[in-house]
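worker-03 picked up job from queue 'complexes'. Input manifest follows; two sequence lines, order preserved.
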Amino acid sequence: MNTPKTGARRRTIAGHGLAVLIGATALSGCVQIETPDKPIEINLNINIRQEVVYRLDGDAKKLIEQNSEIF
Amino acid sequence: MMRVKMWKPTGLALAAIAATAAVALAVPSAMAQRDPAYAAARAAGQIGEQPDGYLGFASTPTPAIRALVQDLNIKRKAAYTERAQATGSTVEQFAFTSGCNLIANTKPGEKYQAPDGRWLTRDGSPPVRSASCP
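worker-03 finished. Artifact:
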């Protein structure tokens, strides 16, 4: 007895969902999303690098001082 | 009374460190200097420092300047390679860290390359460098 009712309710919910979906699809026509080429990977590289750069900074300064003719 | 006795050696140690630092600073300036042609091309803004630790051309170079820069960049790469091995880093990492310092060391009027690739002229304000620079 209850099963058909639930089925009917489901269909109604599904109908609502469909309406929302159609609405969303209609709206999404106005929004353009462009996929970025690189950003995420670059940001990770910078984070890794920064630690290394801080560690090497003193050695780099020394090298530049001691080889002033090529810098 | 005890404190005075304790501090005296520290004062001496500081004086010794200061003396050593003064000697260390004096030595590099007495060492080899830039080739006059290199110094001139730098001062004229024809060449400048890149973020990657190597020299680059801010304007189209003459063959002589191109050869000069190539020679210096080869020597730089050799120096970076040696230090990278000694510090357990990659050549690229060591060169980049050096580039941060070399751009910071540019004098007003000299050229350097910003992270976005533009060639800028150094003025009195801090240079535009990569966010990774210390």
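worker-03 released lock.
The beta strands of chain B are 47-49, 55-57, 111-113, 119-121.
Chain B touches chain A at residues 28-29, 31-35, 72, 75-76, 79-80, 83, 86-87, 89, 93-94, 96-98, 100-102, 105, 130-134 (CB under 8 Å).
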